[in-house]
């Protein structure tokens, strides 16, 4: 402590951060320019903010519909994942000495190494023939596929929670469910935050699963809408960038307010 | 006691059934179809190992594997080198530490597809325009449109995005190293290099393993970047394995054939991950 700040490294890092901020600067300015202004200069700030790009993009991409779909999926995926995956992990963590639960643990965790393309073709057939090629089906798939990684990190964390805490509750007559919801689940708060953040990022940004599962354009999520939009209106860059910016904005806003928790959440999840 | 047992069964069995139905069963189906000639519709026959033999003889598939490996290896190395440097910088005594950390981590929250579209514009219009203005002839063409160098464009975007995540992991490792180790080393006359190789690197060995394995695994599955940047082109220069399976399977009527390709892909990913973990962990022990 008390040492002087290293201005040399600070300067290098600030210069490096321009590589991250610059593409975002371009995105914002292009989204606000007219095609003529863009042709005149890529770099300059827009002289007048042209919000028509946004209103037009909203119409062309049916933006609020996609935003609603993405929000709906993400909300349900996160809530269901937290409630169910933690429960599965609890049962496994407290019974690891039994063969069945040990098998379950390795069964779920090994799925982390199964690349999605190997199930991609059959799962598309399956979801469409069962009539779940929609948002509900998609939510279920995210919750189920999340088990692989979430069981892995939850189990590690639950093992570190002393059993004495549960035993006291059992002595007081609490059922296993009571113990889980009243004692364990609240104690999982830091891990729940981590799983919640990682799941949000995944469900919100994922492109491949909605691409193959959803057949109805009305159900498209934000990334999927950009894909459809790009193939139809690829020439008007101002419009395209307004659309990109609107798709990125919700997450960026959340990040600005919650970056402290997001960074620590991701760190914990990956270390375990 | 019995009740407890039942509760644990109710907690896990539905999850087991769902997981089997929506993950394992389709995977097994994929393996099953890989021995047939199914096109995704209509009748089909068993063809034994024919699909597998054909995958190994298929120039397009071999090229996809080659591209994917080249891309994954180069990106994994670059991401790990850059993120370790950035993490050490962010861990140093710097000004605006919190803000800088927040900025460096931001790419991780952004959709790769949209980032890809933004960079697509940068490669196609922005860089050529600027290069022309500055008179740098080498950069006046869109690198994504050039068969030989398009993959470099994909690497740049992949690295830009992935460095964020790996930096955070390295940073998490670096903060656990006690400051007095460095002070003791300074007293013994160790320079920065010596400190890095004798203290920093050995002590973050587990993070190095995690980062290498995760990065490699993720890059081998590259899909979104390619869709947004090149669509696999020019020609098939940047067609990754995932993209090939997707295209051939859904659009090319090669359901069974691409299932065989997916099985091969799966085996390769498992083998690479296991080898990586074994080799890197041995290094951890030796240190």
Detail the topology: elements first, then pairings.
The complex is a heterodimer of chains A (272) and B (287).
Chain A (H helix, E strand, L loop, with lengths): L6 H26 L2 H6 L11 H10 L1 H31 L5 H12 L6 H13 L5 H25 L4 H8 L4 H12 L1 H17 L2 H6 L8 H11 L4 H35 L1
Chain B lengths: L1 H32 L16 H8 L1 H33 L5 H9 L6 H23 L15 H25 L4 H9 L4 H12 L1 H16 L3 H6 L11 H11 L3 H32 L1
Helix pairs in contact in B: 2-12, 3-6, 3-9, 5-6, 6-9, 9-12, 11-12
Question: What features would you describe in this structure?
Answer:
The complex is a heterodimer of chains A (about 270) and B (about 290). Chain A contains 13 helices and no strands. Chain A has helices at about 5-30, 35-40, 50-60, 65-95, 100-110, 115-130, 135-160, 165-170, 175-185, 190-205, 210-215, 220-230, 235-270. Chain B has about 290 residues and is mainly alpha-helical. Chain B has helices spanning about 1-35, 50-55, 60-90, 95-105, 110-135, 150-175, 180-185, 190-205, 205-220, 225-230, 240-250, 255-285. Chain B is globular. Chains A and B meet through α1, α4, α5, α6 and α7 of A and α1, α3, α4, α5 and α6 of B.
Largest sheet report of chain B: none
How far apart the termini of chain B lie comes to 47 Å
**Alpha-carbon Rg of chain B, integer:** 24 Å
Summarize the amount of helix of chain A as a percent range: over 70%
- Percent of residues in β-strands of chain B: under 5%
What's the gyration radius of chain A in Å? 23 Å
Number of beta strands of chain B: 0
